[in-house]
Amino acid sequence: MQCLTLPFFSEIEQSQSILLAGAGGGFDIFSGLPLYFGLRNLGKQVHLANLSFSPLFSSAGRWLSPALMEVTADTPGPGRYFPEKYLAQWFITQGEQVPIYCFDRTGVQPLLVAYQTLIDLLHIDTIILIDGGTDSLMRGDEPGLGTPEEDIASLAAVHQIKLDTKLLLCLGFGIDTFHGICHAHFLEAVSDLNRHNGFLGTWSLTKEMPEVQRYREATEAVLHAMPSHPSIVSTSILSAVAGLFGDVQANQRTVNSKLFINALMTLYWCFRVDPVAQRLLYLNDILHTQTSRDITSAIEHFRARLPRRKEWVDLPM
Q1: Which of 95, 138, 173, 298 fits a disulfide with 264 by CB distance 3.0 to 4.6 angstroms?
Q2: Which Pfam families has this protein been placed in (predicted)?
Q3: Is 248 contained in some domain?
Q4: What is the pLDDT of residues 72-91, one digit of tens each?
């Protein structure tokens, strides 16, 4: 029965060497951990990467390209904020040595070189980008774009890579309201992608899943190691997975905001990368950028030229 097979899993059925990469920096790669554990249980080789907010140039990891560092449990580096290193250390407590490949915050062209370096090194046949949140689907004319520089740099770089299977997962519907995202426009984007064969369905994480339990253990261990830098996205998703609802304050960074923790935050939304990138109204403006600041400037210039922006729409529910 076709209805018993999610399109996303049909898409990766033949994949053997998968790069699971956090698209938007920070804790994005943690939102991919349930999938990481699940795919490994299927016998697939899975590698972890993340666009990093850590000050990589103050660490002493192994540089594989000008914008790509291999981080391991013993990589010297900044102690206050280095989630990739602490994740590698958590894997050591599980009896595994798992490197986390860190992309520097840069422009599209250096990031493209970094991705191609990993593809060649690890013989990657599939890339799955992970967005903790939903701002990666904003095309540019919405009232707010969230924090688009990193997500869009990852999308634009992977869009240019010649691989048959390139996917995007978003986890945490509703969280980016905190960052000014209108989720009516996210749902509009999903419908648009559905019409253009870019949407591969959704599925939910539940607290009974062993992969989700390991995801919680890993995330909480890293949050404990960095108490001054809690992740809004991760704590919100974990609260939702636990069955909490409403204005649940699990993070000191949100105490002055009203949250709406709910079960929709536990959904993976799945897409093909190329249709998502092709929706981006300023894609051509950023393809040749060299720095993150170049991307910011291109977005600001694009937004300044817009004759009008979409208006905010409250969800009628």
Answers
A1: 173
A2: DUF1152
A3: no
A4: 999 998 778 999 999 999 99
Residue 243 lies in a domain: no
d(CA 189, CA 269): 12
Residue 100: which of 151, 64, 132, 126 has the closest Cα? 64
Question: What digits encode the pLDDT tens for the residues 187-215?
Answer: 999 999 999 999 999 999 999 999 999 99
246: which DSSP letter? B
In angstroms, the CA 155 to CA 189 distance is 15
Residue in the block written with tokens 């554990």: 37
Residue 313 domain-assigned (yes or no) = no
| Residue 208 region by backbone torsions, left for phi larger than 0, else alpha for psi between -120 and 50, else beta | alpha
pTM: 0.97
DSSP 199-235: EEEEEE--TT-HHHHHHHHHHHHHHHH-TTS--HHHH
For residue 20, what are the contacts with CB-CB under 8 A and spacing of at least 6?
Answer: 29, 32, 35, 36, 39, 46, 47, 48, 49, 128, 130
Total domains in the chain come to 1
Instruction: Flag whether pLDDT at 161 surpasses 80.
Output: yes
Burial class (CB in 10 A: 0-12, 13-18, 19+), 97: exposed
For residue 115, the surrounding DSSP H or E stretch is helix 108-122
Residue 8 falls within a domain, yes or no?
no
* Residue 186: domain span: 14-218+265-305
- 173/187 Cα distance (integer angstroms): 10
Quick one: 143 exposed, middle or buried, by C-beta within 10 A (0-12, 13-18, 19+)? middle
Task: Kindly tell me the burial class for residue 246, based on how many C-beta atoms sit within 10 Å of its own C-beta (0-12, 13-18, 19 or more).
Answer: exposed
Q: Which of 91, 114, 103 is nearest to 24 (CA)?
A: 103
Q: How far is CA 118 from the centre of its chain?
A: 17
Structure tokens at 140: 């540019």
Beta bridge partners of 261: 246
